[in-house]
Write a structure and sequence with these properties.
Length: about 625
């Protein structure tokens, strides 16, 4: 089956404007008759809930945290892209479009990426109007810095706290609508089931994480903004509560899952420091503007960095990629760091790290300038490692960060279930096989502020969903399914903790489906995960009960889904017999160890349909047609 992305006709740069005009409208008086559920309060969810309520819809907004301000978007550090060309260095909407398509290794839709580039300029204006304190130059104008995969400075930032400041901007808009009574906020709720009636998404079942009660909520449309699934690897830069459950529930109700094997490994993270670590810490990609990445030229050289003279240092990114240097895209930088460590040139106690050195930048610009740009990041690094980056180089190593795969959506951001819209990292749509830095914040806000407010109106006016109540049999069935699953987890009473299972799953995924993959390892990992999943349901220990605050139960449900979802990731990776972006199959690489695509056979989106328990998922594809960008071997030299 070939999927229809519903991409509008006409010239590429006019598609979105034309589509907005052709979409049916809901008049202001009628908007208040419709209820919309938004799951998630990050940049995508918070902006969508605030904007839909501002338009007049009644919105129910759910978050897993105690406050919308704790959404994981708050952790984003380095910046947000926009094609404003303020530095006058050659940027344009077209260049941002091209860089994003190329950065994604030509595995994203042209139409979606072009729309994203066009909307990027609106986002910055909107956020400035909200009062987001972007960095400014000496004249008071908005400042820009460079990020990987681009040769221009287009990244707007607020020191190393850009995600936090953008989230507070969205939260202020959301709070206004809460005060106006247009948004009803439901904190500490976890979505456990999607309710589908007559083929349409009509509501959700959530668990109140404080009381343990199952709650039913109906709506005319559901918007999922629940982030990515990077925690399937156990150790990642994601918040501990980040999970795949909401997306996976939707997948089991008929929403196709697209490109799940496309996961991003971020090259600039604090290395693993022990067996009892629960997560990893990201150091912003913006650091690669001024920090120089290097390793000793001689394998096994254990001297402290200040004792290694310049002639005996290998600035491998600058040497190998002179045009982009340390600002190559994340997948390229990550693979090269792994390659250096595999050659025995890694540094630190584990030899699984490389240096990120600011000595030259401090000598050139002065400590005060570097402190203004990155001060909070340097402080964070010192608090975690007890090393002062102003005096000694940072040590960094790649870690799981972002997921380009997600629920399949068409141009309207609607999934294969009518009425279920998916925004931000939870969908697959804009980044292809690799996301360029500072593009996640751009996509989340574009989807929430500027895309779904139009497209959800087109859906509602075109279908006019009939009213339903939570007494409908579909709600009762979904609620029962959630209850049964909860009781089953509590009834096993085995001997292994949830975290123990999660850690073993993460080790399997990192070892066989991490930075480098091969068919033999992927097949082996599928067998290992099936065995682990069987043991989980026979031997997991979940203390406590279901009708109370129980974080062990919360984690158990999420890990149970990861144990199924991990196998879907492996299935997708095996089906894609090429290398592209974050999916690096060792059998498909160039002589210079770069990813080698197979455009003839794999220039498509792989979308998977759930076929039932213990049955292989059904494969569907959406062909990718490139009319405006020439498919070439990606090069940053």
């Amino acid at each position: 089956m070939q999927l229809d992305a519903k991409i509008p006709g006409g010239p590429l740069t006019e598609k979105w404007d034309r589509h907005r005009f052709e979409l049916k409208l809901v008049n202001p008086a009628n908007k208040r008759k419709f209820n919309i559920i938004v799951v998630g309060t990050g940049l995508a969810g918070g902006s969508a809930a605030a904007t839909l309520a501002e338009l007049g819809y009644d919105v129910k907004n759910f978050c897993i945290q105690d406050s919308p301000r704790r959404a994981h978007s708050i952790a984003a550090q380095g910046g947000i892209n926009a094609a404003k060309n303020y530095p006058n260095d050659g940027d344009s909407i077209w260049r941002l479009f091209y860089d994003t398509v190329k950065g994604g290794d030509f595995r994203a839709r042209e139409a979606n990426v072009c729309r994203l580039a066009q909307l990027s300029t609106n986002i910055i204006d909107h956020c400035v109007a909200q009062g987001v304190p972007f960095a400014r130059d000496y004249g008071g104008l908005l400042a820009n810095r460079s990020f990987g995969g681009a040769q221009v400075s287009r990244t707007f930032y607020a020191r190393g706290q850009t995600g936090q400041q953008l989230l507070l901007g969205a939260y202020s808009s959301l709070s206004r609508q809460i005060a106006a009574g247009k948004v009803t906020m439901f904190p500490r709720r976890e979505m456990l089931e999607l309710v589908v009636i007559n083929g349409q998404a009509r509501g959700i079942v959530v668990r109140n994480l404080v009381t343990g009660e199952m709650e039913r909520h109906e709506a005319h449309a559901v918007v999922l903004c629940t982030g990515g699934y990077g925690n399937v690897f156990f150790l990642s830069t994601n918040a501990m509560a980040s999970n795949v459950t909401a997306s996976y529930r939707a997948y089991k109700k008929g929403a196709f899952f697209a490109n799940p094997c496309f996961t991003q490994i971020h090259p600039t993270c604090i290395p693993v420091h022990g067996d009892y670590q629960s997560k990893l810490t990201l150091m912003s990609e913006s650091l690669r503007n001024d920090g120089r990445v290097w390793v000793p030229k001689t394998p096994g050289d254990k001297r402290p960095p200040h004792q290694i003279p310049e002639a005996e240092r290998d600035y491998y990114l600058e040497n190998k990629y002179p045009s982009f240097g340390n600002l190559v895209p994340r997948d390229v930088a990550s693979r090269n760091a792994k390659e250096q460590c595999d050659m025995g040139k890694g540094v630190g106690e584990t030899a699984l790290a490389v240096y990120l050195d600011f000595e030259d930048a401090i000598k050139r610009d002065g400590r005060d300038v570097i402190e203004k740009k990155y001060g909070n990041l340097f402080q964070m690094y010192e608090k975690i490692t007890a090393d002062d980056p102003y005096q000694t180089p940072m040590m960094i190593y790649p870690a799981v960060h972002y997921t380009m795969g997600g629920l399949w959506v068409d141009y309207n951001l609607m999934s294969t279930i009518p009425g279920l819209f998916v925004l931000g990292e939870a969908n697959f749509s804009d980044h292809g096989a690799n996301r360029l830095g500072a593009s996640a914040l751009m996509q989340g806000l574009a989807d929430g502020y500027f895309v779904v407010p139009y497209t959800i109106g087109g859906y509602i006016s075109g279908t006019t969903p009939e009213d339903v109540t939570t007494d409908h049999p579909a709600f009762k069935e979904a609620s029962q399914q959630a209850e049964i699953r909860t009781r089953k987890l509590l009834s096993v009473k085995g001997k292994r903790t949830v975290d123990d299972f999660h850690k073993e799953l993460g080790h399997i995924m990192w070892e066989y489906c991490g930075m480098a993959r091969n068919n033999e390892g992927l097949d082996k990992a599928k067998t290992m995960i099936r065995s682990l999943r069987e043991e989980f349901w026979e031997n997991v220990l979940v203390p406590g009960g279901g009708k109370a605050f129980n974080q062990s139960l919360e984690r158990a449900g999420r890990v149970a889904d990861f144990l199924e979802f991990g196998e879907l990731m492996l299935t997708d990776a095996l089906a894609r017999q090429e290398s592209c972006g974050g999916h690096f199959n060792e059998a498909y690489q160039t002589e210079e160890n770069e990813a080698r695509r197979d455009d003839e056979n794999f220039c498509h989106v792989a979308a998977w349909e759930w076929a039932g328990d213990d049955k292989a998922p059904v494969f569907h594809k959406e062909p990718l047609v490139f009319e405006h960008v020439k498919l070439t071997q990606r090069s940053y030299k």
